[in-house]
Amino acid sequence: MIKSLFVFLFCCFSICAIAQTPADKQSILKVLETQRLAWNKGDLETFMQGYIKSDSLLFVGSSGPTYGWQKTLDNYKKTYQGAAGMGQLTFGIKKVDFLNNDVAFVLGSWHLKREKDEPQGYFTLLFKKLKGEWKIFVDHSS
């Protein structure tokens, strides 16, 4: 019985290790870096390519939940207008954990350097691997 339990646990840990491939982590970090670079160029459309383009996208910010890719883009455009409103974005990635083979949790911080202020906060993201690409499907930023 103990031997069977050991084999079961070994298999579970092996499956978890498979989910945490360096290539998948690098792909997720690349999505975030692409977003950061696009933001700093004022290119919200490219920034939004990191999100799943679906009505099921969930973004939770200070004004509550928003559902949908287009609504999220519209909110970004309304809130961060022009180069002065967008500023220069930096991220501090604290953690990337794989929940299974195609879902990952990311914890990080964000910081905007603008002429008049420097807002900052934290975010939690859920990424899903769809057709070989990692996309954000839940973003909670504060």
TrEMBL record:
UniProt keyword annotations, A-Z: Signal
Cleavable signal peptide: 1-19
Domain DUF4440: start-end pairs: 28-136
Pfam families with a match to the protein in the record: DUF4440 (PF14534)
Protein name: DUF4440 domain-containing protein
